[in-house]
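Complex 678.
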Amino acid sequence: MIARGKLADPRVQEAIDSSTERLRSHRIDAWNELDDVEGRRARAYEIRMRAVRDIDGNLNRFRSALEARGGHVSVCASAEEANAYVVDVCKRHGAKLLAKSKSMATEEIGLNDALEAAGITSVETDLGEYILQLEGEHPVHIVAPAIEKTKEDVARLFTDVEGVDVPPVLEELTASARRQLRQVFLDADVGVTGANFVVAETGTVVTVTNEGNGRLCASLPRVHIVVTGIERLVERMEDLPHLLSLLGRSATGQRLTSYTHLVTGPRREGEQDGPEELHVIFLENGRRNLIDTKYEEMLACIRCGSCLNVCPVYRKTAGAAYGPVYSGPMGAVLAPLLVGLEQAPSLPHASSLCGACTQACPVKIPLHELLLELRSDLVEERTAPFLERLGFSLWSVAWSTPIGYRISTRLARLGQRWGSRLGPGRVWAGGRDLPALARKRFRDVR
Amino acid sequence: MRVQLFATCLGDLIFPDAVRDAEALLRDADVDVDFVERQVCCGQPAFNAGHRKAAKRVARTFDKAFSRDHPIVLASGSCATMASHYLPKLLDIEPYEVWELSSFLEHLGVEVASTNTGRTLAYHDSCHMLRDLDISDAPRRLLEKSGATLAPLERSDLCCGFGGTFSVRQPEVSVAMADDKLAAAADSGAEALVTADPGCLMHLTGRANRVGGVPIVHLATALRHGVGPTSG
Ligand code: SF4
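Predicted structure with iron/sulfur cluster bound:
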């Protein structure tokens, strides 16, 4: 989980640059249609924080509501627990094939690997995720998982899979994907989806997709399993439309995502379709660490990806420079909180603190300020390197008085010719000239 | 009208000319400028790196040096953000009245000398000035008042890649961001790129010295002397 100071290769960088730019400008256009943008963001924040501050109450309400409809609810503390639950359900039904729609929560727990180990085939049915699965890769963007792939990349891949020539034309590519995936939906014994929101009051799971694959995963197979974070809950159905409208606009610039699927329980008597069994797994996996802390607001995230699309660091490094699952500013904040700061000490520093993320976030999460807090925690917990701590201490003692400031800057002037040979000066000078200290300070000549 | 000028550490040590130009602009506008000798730095370098104890130690010099009787004016958007937003919270003190130079000059409604007549300039929005202080029009209007035509700079809001310690923690990324900014400036057709932040100035100049590009000039200098072959 290291944010490598490496750039993505130029081809990937170009693809990321143009895709994030497109998503960014679509978002801006979609928001420009709205009045009272700040009021809407504030309302979204209020809805999300109200839910986050009462996660257990909402969990209980959701459980009663869904169980009354014949669904099953389980709260899993860890990835292992959640994976074991899914595998167990699959085994009970003798499932061999599982159809999955895009879900960051299942990425987080490595569900596909766990299923494979249990001899169950899991097929990703979101186009981007499917491409990545064929390539053996993982998503680099929480909304557009295969954002760095070009049409040509995909055409080559599908040509290989189908054994017939698939041209790099969007319609042809989606037609090819449809041919490849249709049978999976029909044959799958179990469907797994994530959830964008979960409504506590009614026991409703809400999933949005643009390809309709989520709806097929949730309705064709006999068993539907939802894997989602405990923080996805919202309190009331009336909270939902506001969030859906902001999610679509923020993620892709759509007023509403193409498919919005609300599931409240398994198939009922007399109904023609829907699964016989519905399981909703709520994943904790570190999320409880955030409750009632200064990081609580991070749980309000609706995974819209806006912060990735505006982040200049993300644009240069692509998702792979962050943790394995969540990337961009939201990942730089969330990943260390979920896995522990000592496991991801460089992520809070994978930002120039430009604040573009905070400005873009539809639910007003102060991302760059949370990064500042994490950096401070790194120092407090002494995870930051000793030399760095020593350096800042010495510097601060020197600069705590005007006289210390004068002496230290004189010394720096004497030593500056060696500045580019050691420490941070050397790193700086790798790509830039070191600034020269002026012969006389402003205060000495004014 | 009396103000206290805060040179900032980068201004004091690396860009004294820009601070002198800022002071001159204020005096031209009939403002009495005090320079408090006790001032050092706002502590931002340590604060942004997470070293709060170190940041507090240095930030206290700010609190000791400045009074609340007169506004504090400085020619740096990011230090203005630190001094107005973060420093009071860090030290748990009452906020100061802090003004970034261009917004202060605009606030006074000053006339600017025609130092850039016939010139085409581009303006880079520094991050904290744009997003925390919400100042983006003032520097542009002042440049226009000085006679300059502003060339649109593609994604003028994108960070230049400095980011304090970020510049040495992620040097490749930081430099690549600077390259994008320099390329945008070159594409804009402007004769120079103007910024109101010594941090951006230091970073972009350091990179431009290696790979070339249009001159990068501090806003105060651009307004006071104009951007010409002799400046930058
Ligand atoms: S942090 Fe905000 S902008 Fe980023 S993904 Fe979450 S909701 Fe969207």
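Residues 342 and 383 of chain A are 6 Å apart (CA to CA).
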